[in-house]
Design brief:
- It contains 22 helices and 13 strands.
- It folds into 3 domains: 134-318, P-loop containing nucleotide triphosphate hydrolases (Rossmann fold, 3-Layer(aba) Sandwich); 324-394, Helicase, Ruva Protein, domain 3; 405-602, Peptidase M41 (Methane Monooxygenase Hydroxylase, Chain G, domain 1, Up-down Bundle).
- Helix 16 crosses helix 20 (564-577).
- Strands 5-7-8-9-6-10 form a 6-stranded mixed beta sheet, with helices on both faces. A 4-stranded mixed beta sheet has the order 3-2-1-4, covered by helices on one side. A 3-stranded antiparallel beta sheet has the order 12-11-13.
- Strand 8 (245-250), helix 10 (270-283) and strand 9 form a beta-alpha-beta unit.
- The chain is α/β, with parallel strands linked by helices.
């Protein structure tokens, strides 16, 4: 339908240009009209030189060389007078009336085509423009051989358990409803990106062996008002014909945002019309219809309350990044089809990747396979996985970047300052690796890897984290008595942590256990941003954030000045080796005097 509209609009443009061009040509080639009385006056004054007679139309030139055109009521009486004045006379056939196709027909075509187009646009349904668009972009997976099952989903056992009865209902609805209970009409999968929401929805359909209709929330919103609502109706109509089945709406927040929020355009807004149609269709299911709506989003906070109420999305399943056991199982799933070295222990890999989602673990295995293939290896080794993890976390090495010796020295002391604070302060994540090789946008990186998964953070951990972030700038100031722009990202992260400590986590002694969070929406979704505290409190928040950062900065200076020897040693080793691991850091920071064996390990003094 879109191609038809595009071709029709192109035809209309060509026809319009043709009519305009023809009219311009007529105007430019039309001779000046001379009144018949003026023509007779010029004839009597011997000012007419030539005359061409075509019916009643007379064209010619006067004695001044100017062309003219006039109409004679009686040509037979005019001829003797022309001959008497010695005018050169010529004759021709009368001009034909302009053809219909060159003037009137294009206009009729434009008007008729426009009326036809508007008629089809207003019809709606399957024959209209909106209906034609509404039938597009609905993907249905017919290939049962490639279907995803729960065996392909790992690391989220709690989410799978909540969805088992959905599968049972799709297989045999009477088994679940025999006691009078009703299966949820809608299931909302919510969680951070990459945690497996779309994969889990496919697994539900794969386990049940039912049709799987998939569409993105952004596909509902189009240029024409009413297209999204038409597409919603068509989607549900197709699903009802194929029941039992699953309708999967990915990124539903694109169309299901709260009505009346900032940026909305009222009742005629396309997004709101689409959302209203979706709400009506979800209410329209009968109890005996085995159609399940599964939606996914990583922004459940912006969804409309009417969409979240019981009777629509009855069940909300939260999917979070997996723990160490889940990461181990996910790595096993993604390593099935790759050549893995027998010495690789996936448990070690799982322990070294806290916070990784399923998508990130899949990317880790894929990057490891690419690196091993690039080096011509027969299988993926642990070193390939480590290199791939460094690339994902820190960025690719920029080995071709030319850096001056002074810049390398500043970077070495900067990263050494981070590392010493991370090593000395209690309740911090262990140092994993330090490098002064530029990676991504950073000139150097000090990488910390948590020992286990953290789900809550103490005040001591957060303040020590701020001290570590400020350690790079502090080391530059101590050694060079100045600082560079290399600490820009560190300062941003440190300020964000301090702000959240005061505003969200109640870790300010002056303000106490209160949260000061600005809401994105006002009462009933009015869209106004209202601050729930006074200007005096706002000043106090600024003072507390500044105080936390200033105290952490002073403590970082005290720690580094007390260990200035270790700072110089660590920076020297970094300048020699460029990259050192946790063991080498331990040797330098914890040993007062370096033995010959330790000197050889670190490369210090050659």
């Amino acid at each position: 339908m879109a191609k038809y509209v595009r071709n029709y609009l192109l035809l209309m443009a060509v026809a319009t240009l043709g009519v305009i061009g023809y009219n311009v040509w007529l105007v430019e080639n039309q001779l000046p009209m001379l009144e018949y009385s003026a023509f007779l006056t010029k004839l009597e004054n011997d000012e007419i030189q030539t005359a061409r007679i075509q019916g009643q139309e007379i064209t010619g030139t006067d004695s001044y060389g100017q062309s003219f055109s006039t109409y004679a009521p009686d040509v037979q009486q005019l001829l003797p007078r022309l001959e008497g004045k010695n005018v050169r006379i010529s004759a021709g056939k009368p001009r034909a009336v302009s053809p219909f196709w060159s003037s009137t027909f294009p206009v009729v075509l434009l008007m008729g085509g426009w009326m036809f187009f508007m008629f089809r646009s207003q019809k709606g349904g399957s024959g209209g423009v909106s209906g034609g668009f509404g039938k597009k972009k609905i993907a249905m997976d017919p290939d049962k051989a490639r279907r995803v099952t729960f065996a392909d989903v790992a690391g989220i056992p709690e989410a799978k358990e909540e969805l088992v009865e959905i599968v049972e209902f799709l297989k045999d609805s009477k088994k679940i409803t025999r006691l009078g209970g009703k299966i949820p009409k809608g299931v909302l999968l919510q969680g951070p990106p990459g945690t497996g929401k779309t994969l889990l929805a496919k697994a539900i359909a794969g386990e049940a062996g039912v049709p799987f209709y998939s569409i993105s929330g952004s596909d509902f919103v189009e240029m024409f008002v009413g297209v999204g609502a038409s597409r919603v109706r068509d989607l549900f109509a197709q699903a009802k014909k194929s029941a039992p089945c699953i309708i999967f709406i990915d990124e539903i927040d694109a169309v299901g945002r709260s009505r009346g929020a900032a940026g909305a355009m009222g009742g005629q807004d396309e997004r709101e019309q689409t959302l209203n149609a979706l709400l009506v269709e979800m209410d329209g299911f009968q109890s005996e219809q085995t159609v399940i709506i599964v939606a996914a989003t990583n922004r459940p906070d912006v969804l409309d309350p009417a969409l979240m109420r019981p009777g629509r999305f009855d069940r909300q399943v939260t999917i979070m990044p997996p723990d160490v056991k889940g990461r181990r199982k996910i790595l096993e799933v993604h390593s099935r089809n790759v050549m893995m070295d027998p010495d690789v222990d996936l448990q070690v890999v799982a322990q070294s990747t806290p916070g990784f989602t399923g998508a990130e673990l899949a990317n880790l295995i894929n990057e490891s396979a690419l690196m091993a293939a690039r080096k011509g290896k027969a299988g993926i080794q642990l070193s390939d996985i480590e290199d791939a993890k460094d690339k994902i976390l820190m960025g690719a090495e920029r080995t071709g970047l030319v850096i001056s010796d002074q810049q390398r020295k500043v970077t070495a002391y900067h990263e050494a300052g981070h590392a010493i604070l991370a090593k000395v302060l209690p309740n911090t994540d262990p140092v994993h690796k330090i490098t002064i090789i530029p990676r991504g946008q950073a000139m150097g990186v000090m990488q910390q890897v948590p020992i286990d998964d953290r789900h809550a953070y103490s005040k001591e951990y957060l303040t020590n984290r701020i001290k570590i972030l400020l350690g790079g700038r502090t080391a530059e100031e101590i050694v060079f008595n100045e600082f560079s722009t290399g600490a820009s990202n560190d300062l941003q992260v440190a300020t964000d942590i301090a702000t959240r400590m005061v505003c969200e986590w109640g870790m300010s002694e002056r303000l106490g256990p209160r949260a000061f969070v600005t809401s994105d929406q006002g009462f009933l979704g009015s869209g106004s941003r209202q601050r729930a505290y006074s200007e005096e409190i706002a000043r106090t928040i600024d003072e507390e954030v500044s105080r936390i950062i200033a105290e952490c900065y002073q403590e970082a200076i005290i720690v580094l000045e007390g260990r200035i020897t270790f700072l110089h040693k660590l920076a020297e080793v970094l300048l020699l080796n460029e990259t050192i691991d946790a063991e080498e850091v331990d040797i330098i920071v914890t040993c007062p005097k370096l033995t010959e064996e330790n000197k050889e390990k670190t490369g210090l003094f050659g």
